[in-house]
Amino acid sequence: MKYSRRLEGVDYSATIDISDRVKRMKAAGRDVISMAAARPDFDAPAAVRRATSEAVLGGAYSGYSESRGLLELREAVSEHLYRWSGVEYDPESEVLITVGQREGLSLALGALVDPGDPVLVPDPGWLTYRSTVALAGGRPVSFGFCAEDDYRPRVGDLRRGIEGGARVTIINTPANPTGTVFSRSELESIRDLTEQCGATVITDEIYAPFTYDGHRHISPAAIEGMRDRTLVTGAVSKAWAMTGWRVGFAAGPSGLIDRMLMIHQHLVSCACTFAQKGAVVALREEHDTLSSMARSYLARRDILAEGMASLRGIEFNVPRGACFFFPAFPGIGMTGRELATRFLEDGDLALTPGEAFGPGGANRLRISFASTPEEMLPEVLRRMGAVLEGIRDGRD
Ligand SMILES: Cc1ncc(COP(=O)(O)O)c(C=O)c1O
Predict the structure, then answer these.
(1) Is 236 near ligand 1, meaning CB less than 6 Å away?
(2) pTM over 0.85
(3) pLDDT in tens, 273-284
(4) Which of 110, 137, 211, 390 is the most exposed place for a label (fewest CB within 10 A)?
């Protein structure tokens, strides 16, 4: 069989791979704690589950919805984005309901990228960006972050990418895995850089409600002059703990939304109709869920930051947003993959190797606190300390 060459730039998802290993270890009786995936441990809000069940039982939502998505959900998305970023979108023509954030990203790249086109992607960045660019036939070009300076984005890399012909850039704020929350002045620099050539910004704002220490999420679309060159993507997956609903959204200029719709119709027809009914309730009514999850993530972050500060051999930035630490292990001389194997095999602690997030993630590990409750964190810290000590003892 001859397989497509496009797949050469695509990887299996490292987090799904680790989750499968964890399942096998648990089935064999090992007490593994997984901090590999970004799957919230909360339940979807009760009102959302009720609304979804009623939509299923009532029978009226078993068919395809309008391909753009239920109008009431597009209206709810538009209200939500206005509340969070102050940007207005017409639910009729500027909003598309997608199958999770991922589909929105794929559709946008499918609509914007020609074979061989360079696309700027964050490095380290969510592993799906590179693969999705490759699937669209594009060529991922990295822009980096400055680990010594609290993971601020390297705007010079973006400039070089634009000068090298990139006409699409992906921004993720708050960012996975670095916890970077882009500042207004960084976004203004990106606006200035992309303005002349009219480059499009695809922004992934799935972690928007999770920012800490007074840092606030700012959408690139809210920067003056950016709205009509920016596609906002998001989902109910993380913020409302609804990963399995597979409902996301994209909002942007109608010309781009129409072209994405063309692909969406052939690919999936529409997002799951009764799941969309649940998403309406999440977006319209569940504002307290967002703040209580954010409070809980902040408490977890603080416990981990304090505990890790007293461990030897680990260096980290305290994340300003999202739900990840991305530490380095100076002096240990192991790759992220080797470290992840040691933590899993010797410490029963599943973490994601930094290499999965691009070359900029080398020799690091991503620690997700999305799914580990506060009461388990002392045990997590104990296991981390024991593994690091074991590695050091093996060398002395
Ligand atoms: C930055 C980022 N965007 C998007 C997603 C996935 O979103 P969805 O499940 O809605 O497709 C993830 C999942 O880990 C993520 O980390």
Answers:
(1) no
(2) yes
(3) 999 999 999 999
(4) 390
